[in-house]
Specification:
The protein is mainly alpha-helical and about 280 residues long. It is built from 11 helices and 2 strands, in the order αααααααββαααα. A hairpin with a 3-residue loop joins β1 and β2.
């Protein structure tokens, strides 16, 4: 299983890097939109919808949300960062509430029991994820910022996995995801902190106006948010009675099982950059 995960991960990493460095904003937005739409198909199953017609309708509705978002925010026409800030703030507020729901689960499970609530949350989460990732690309050195975000999320996940296996004893959220431990969480966060310091000293020309302290705080926020995104999707899967969101990625489960951390980390990182004056 680990070998399969590594092979799939390498293929995804190569495809991602090739896309972000070779394609323009419009093409990347379209590809990310296609990935997010595939995630919406999986979320339709997590919402409890049965049958291809109903799930297809939900997926088309999500695609319509992306088109409306592209038009309203004028992403293809040099968008103004200030226009994004309120929505990124709303997304981060949602994840703050999600943290409380994770902490209080299963008492908070009533929020996720309704098909309607799960469906609405799915549209919101996946749309704001797409919006945040595309917004990053509109910033100076946007391609680099997006790569750093994905690298940090992947580092937090990988380090947490190995640290948890080696030293994990204390459960992080046993009623949501029994396999996660505090030791794994701290290992993931520490690895991202080290990565952030390396980036701060290795890319001074790109990030000169952000202090090392600011960058480390951003890294810690991204690492924590990525774990929160993972746990939140785990809550939804528990209420849906499934282990994986799908079977699209060998060794990883579904697409949502790979991008769940990014769903929370992307808006947090994007808003942090705006607040830091990037």
């Amino acid at each position: 299983m680990l070998r399969q995960r590594v092979i799939t991960g390498v293929i995804l990493a190569v495809a991602f890097l090739a896309a972000v460095f070779l394609l323009n904003l419009e093409s990347l937005a379209l590809i990310f939109g296609a990935v997010a739409t595939a995630g919406a198909w999986e979320w339709s199953g997590l919402s409890g919808f049965k049958g291809p017609a109903v799930r297809g309708a939900y997926t088309l509705l999500y695609a319509g949300c992306l088109f409306a978002t592209w038009s309203v925010f004028a992403i293809g026409e040099a968008p103004v960062p200030e226009v994004f800030q309120p929505w990124l703030g709303i997304a981060c507020f949602f994840w703050s509430v999600a943290m409380l729901m994770v902490e209080s689960y299963p008492e908070s499970s009533w929020v996720w029991r309704s098909q309607f609530s799960r469906a609405v949350f799915g549209l919101f989460i996946l749309t704001t994820t797409w919006l945040a990732t595309v917004f990053l690309l509109t910033l100076p050195s946007g391609t680099l910022l997006l790569v750093l975000l994905v690298l940090a999320v992947a580092m937090a996940d990988i380090a947490a996995y190995f640290a948890g296996r080696r030293w994990g004893h204390h459960k992080l959220a046993s009623k949501v995801s029994p396999g996660k431990t505090w030791e794994g969480f701290l290992g993931g966060v520490a690895s991202v902190a080290v990565l952030t310091l390396i980036i701060a000293y290795g890319l001074p020309n790109h990030l000169a106006h952000l202090s090392s302290v600011t960058l480390v705080l951003m890294g810690l926020a991204v690492a924590g948010a990525s774990v929160l995104g993972d746990l939140t999707v785990s809550m939804v899967k528990r209420e849906s009675g499934v282990k994986d969101s799908g079977t699209l990625l060998p060794g990883h489960g579904g697409l949502l099982d790979r991008i769940d951390g990014l769903c929370a980390a992307a808006p947090v990182f994007a808003l942090a950059l705006l607040l830091a004056g990037y």
